[in-house]
């Protein structure tokens, strides 16, 4: 196995990873950053970002990530394609395995692997993967122009995706398991007032059907109640927007996480229970999960890594 020694290894290429890279590169830590499966992270699947300071007219998610990437490159970050497939944090330097065939020995590691979309866990989601089931409206919405789609979820993501899809599809159903939306007031209003969006409150999707792709969804209204009602709804596309799970699995043998897998860091700091290993962005943030808060924690992680290296004369 090929081996390489680095001072600062950054895993992940969302706002946290690139911000950590900008700070680490300017501090001359010679950071190496592996981009992972989805270069640019979740923002590459978003449309317009309106709430990141510095862009008064908004910016498209992929364009913002390209800006961050260029800024990290400008200061000399070594950005590489590759996926961290395993780690050994039992001693120093820390070992991180890339694509199962490169061993990076790192004095400091910044974990910025983000989180991934959740699915309901239905067999049919797998059966129709790429055939009508998607967890990314911006990636796949284009295929549903003038068609009928459903979005599952009642949070900001679900509302945002429903509004986006309503710009393409002929009809959007929003399947919400509770009798209310959890989304922010402004997103709730946009959804409720949109003529192409119909909100199905107190509904659960329990299966999909179709010959060569999704043709409809099996729904249950008021599941488990005396007036429970089951029916089928014809749709062409089924979009999940029910939250995310942190991408922390490979670190769990060494790094402490909470019960749903978010890496535990104390207070304002990004340090983990493993000295020299830091976590930034959504992988360690069950609460804010914003581009700006991720970027802020990436900055803190790089500053802590720099102090760790200088304290340990590495
Ligand atoms: P949330 O956790 O806020 O919402 C998840 C939604 O999915 C909830 O309505 C939840 O229902 C529903 N859900 C979860 N599991 C299931 C299930 N098994 N079956 C049916 N429904 C289910 O996640 P989001 O991704 O929407 O948002 C995450 C964070 O990101 C939030 O803080 C949000 O505000 C923020 N965000 C901000 C945006 C912006 O500012 N532009 C855009 C998008 C997200 P229930 O309510 O019943 O639990």
Can you describe what's shown?
- It contains 7 helices and 19 strands.
- The chain is an alpha/beta fold and 314 residues long.
- Strands 1, 2, 5, 6, 7, 8 and 19 form a 7-stranded mixed beta sheet that branches.
- The chain is elongated and about 65 Å long.
- α1 (15-26) runs parallel beside α2 (61-74), α1 (15-26) runs parallel beside α7 and α5 runs parallel beside α6.
- The model has no long low-confidence stretch (mean pLDDT 96).
- α6 (185-193) links the parallel β12 (171-175) and β13 (197-200).
- 24% of the residues lie in helices and 28% in strands.
Précis, in short:
It is built from seven helices and 19 strands. The protein is of the alpha/beta class. The model has no long low-confidence stretch (mean pLDDT 96).
Q: Key terms for this structure?
A:
314 residues; alpha/beta; 7-stranded mixed sheet; 7 helices; elongated; binds NADPH dihydro-nicotinamide-adenine-dinucleotide phosphate
- Which ligands occur here? NADPH dihydro-nicotinamide-adenine-dinucleotide phosphate
First-to-last CA distance: 24 Å
Oligomer: single chain
**In percent terms, what proportion of residues is strand?**
25-35%
Mean pLDDT: 96
The secondary-structure element order is EHEEEHEEEEEHEHEHEHEEEEEEEH
Helix content: 10-25%
Helical stretch tally:
7
Radius of gyration over all CA atoms, rounded = 21 Å
Structural class by helix and strand composition: alpha/beta
Could you list the spans in which at least 5 consecutive residues all have pLDDT below 50?
A: none
